Amino acid sequence: MSLLTVFLVLVTCSSLQQPQTDIPPQAPDTSIVYTKRRIVLPEVPQRGRILDRHDSVLVATRPQYRLKLPRRPPLDTLALGQLLGWGPTTLRKRIADALPYEEAPAGYPVQLRLTAAEAARVRRKSRDWPTLTLTESRQRTYTTSVGAHVLGYSAAEAEAFYSQAKRYRRGRFYQLRNSGLEGYYNGILNGRRGVLHPLVDAQGQTQGSWAPDTTFQQGQDLHMTLDVKLQAYAEQLLGRRKGYLVALDPRTGEILAYVSAPIYKPATITAPDLAGVRAKLLQQEGMPLINRPAMRANPPGSVFKLVNAAVALQLGAITPATGFRCDQKLVSCVHKHPAPSNLTAGLKYSCNPYFYQVMGKLINYVPDSLVQDTVAARHVNLAEWRRYVRSFGLDSVLGVDIPREAPGFLPTPEYYDKARGTTRWRYRSIYSLSIGQGEINMTGLQMANMAAIIANRGWYYPPHLVRSVGDDGPLPRFTKKRYTLVDSAHLAALIPGMMAVMQKGGTADASSLEDVSITVAGKTGTVQNDEGDDHAAFVGFAPADNPQIAVAVYIENGGFGADAAAPCAALVMEKYLRGNIAPKRKRWEARIQSRARHGY
């Protein structure tokens, strides 16, 4: 018993009822005083690992070596660098990165992480360096430099970051916290210690249990859906730019790549010698710590025309053969193109006046029952539009396995009544919804899922990042297929237009992959921004006839979706489907990666 942790709780009662026990030997004498004991078994569970979809270990609990430098100078940095096998520049940078702010006084306590080989050298020379302190502990170790926003961190190891974040970003601290999979699956990763609950009499004899015993559970591994090689490639395309890229398998809802940019290394948040790097991240205007695909909801721009077209087809406002004039008196159209004579052409050219009139027919429709009340008709029609749009997983959380997913927003008739100060608002005051602007907001996860729904012609599995918990599959909710309210035939009617977008004359024809026999179905978006350059957006999937990957890209201040977002999506699709990039696009790829490194 000396090895056990025992907590004693004395309970005295004159008429004690028979306790609930697993296997009670007999009913205890109710006139005797009993002792409730809680015995925590000594075995401590090992925290589970996190692996990618190909079983490469990304996060594990391993020995970590820390070297504590003497607080009082002078310190012979040249000799210390030689001891550790570091150059003088490397040592100075490592010490600077460990300081929480640049003006830290001389002698500020610094701890440096060492490899096992470096730690062994320090041990061998310990007599020559009595002022150095080497410690060893088991902590979470990242074997990859990518996927920071997905992998997250253990809250127990992030206290230093929490303190820094509260000091630098008091009002935004809640937004900055993103414990990722480490936080979401913390209980599963941690496992469970065994606990016994015996009821003991005065003679020390067990008389049953006063509560059910807790069985020991080893921490379980998480096998992710993420392809770490694709993740690394996608991060190279976004780098220091602001935005996101989400790629998923539409057949399963498994997330293949999940990039929130600007990017940073996952070890940054918990490493003891990266306080200075964390401080810079906290102060950056680009706010790299924000988990953009899950937490940032933005106007989607023209990519939302796909949803509006599908709902208009379902409600009978248009047919695939419906054409409209490109009437720029209604709304401007940035593309020069022939008049869209049908839906395919409207999507190919992303004609704003076309979709203005599509949604206008939907909102302004007046049934015979409301012929005298056009105000009520508009309210009914907007509410019906919203009901169908919500079935795409919008204006609600998708339930992805990452903390604090944002729901986005779709306006209601009541919202406009209040915002406009009258119930007699007209379509002209809400037409921005027709081109994915105004009050509507979507997250990156929702945009990627929208592409998956169209790829599947009307159904989806909730996007998720873990395909297997231990030896089991994903969480049960990720295996339940969900359907939209739009018939598959109407979603299939969008595909020719999305394919035309990527063909000659389409808004993203420069991003075509036809040269490598991959037909892409896509839609570009350029989101108006009153505070700077427009935002670039793109959604799509490939191959168009047998979709295996759906991608959403959003680059803040990126300009046209065709110029900034579509090329990134096309490269990720080609990398995933072929494993390499065709020579034709190598220069194109290098230019995008260069921009990503420089953040423009």
From TrEMBL:
The record places domain Penicillin-binding protein transpeptidase at 243-573
**What domain of life?**
Bacteria
Q: Which residues cross the membrane?
A: none
User: GO CC terms on record?
Assistant: plasma membrane
Keyword field: Carboxypeptidase, Cell membrane, Cell shape, Cell wall biogenesis/degradation, Hydrolase, Membrane, Peptidoglycan synthesis, Protease, Transmembrane, Transmembrane helix
InterPro entries under this entry? Beta-lactam/transpept, Beta-lactam/transpept-like, PBP_dimer, PBP_dimer_sf, PCN-bd_Tpept
Span of domain Penicillin-binding protein dimerisation: 44-205
What is the originating organism of this protein?
Hymenobacter mucosus
What SUPFAM superfamilies has UniProt attached to this entry?
A: beta-lactamase/transpeptidase-like, Penicillin binding protein dimerisation domain
- Name one molecular function that GO assigns to this entry: peptidoglycan L,D-transpeptidase activity
This protein's record includes keyword Cell wall biogenesis/degradation: yes
User: Which BP terms does GO give this entry?
Assistant: cell wall organization; peptidoglycan biosynthetic process; regulation of cell shape
Name this protein carries in UniProt:
Penicillin-binding protein 2
Task: Note one Pfam family from the annotation.
Answer: Transpeptidase
Subcellular compartments: Cell membrane; Membrane
